[in-house]
Specification:
Elements: H1 2-20, E1 24-29, E2 33-39, E3 46-53, E4 58-66, H2 67-71, E5 77-84, E6 87-96, E7 103-111, H3 115-122, E8 125-130, E9 133-138, H4 144-151
Antiparallel strand pairs: 1-2, 2-3, 3-4, 4-7, 5-6, 5-8, 6-7, 8-9
Amino acid sequence: MHRSLAAVFGLGLISGQALAQEREWTLDASDQEAYLIFGVAESDDVGVSLWCNTGKDMVNLYIPRPSAELQKLSRRKVPVTVTAGGETATFGGKIDINPDSPSSSVEVELAVDGPILKALEKADRFSVKVHGEELVFPLYDADVAGLVALCRKG
């Protein structure tokens, strides 16, 4: 009986730790920049992020990718397709390889008033396709409208 109770208690602790490590959306801003990050708080775990220099009317979509995957490409740009709601657009993603890290990134610029950001404000999820790999991210609790307001001019 005590063993069963100990096993259940141990599983409860493990699942509690797993829940504490789930990715969440966080909006953070300074006088010069704003970030909407889907990741684990207080860690380097970032699934995707949207960021901007405040008041510049542009939002950058940052997608972490394995360095080994990006190093295989012989170019500095890669097509990135973003789908949200009924909107789909393909952008030229700028590759940034960090040779000293297992993770690098691809980044695209989105216009604040463009159809993709408007769709992100209303959708429940969005997908990003980079070099044949499709990633899907939930948008529950993502304050896209708050980020857009911070990034918008005036």
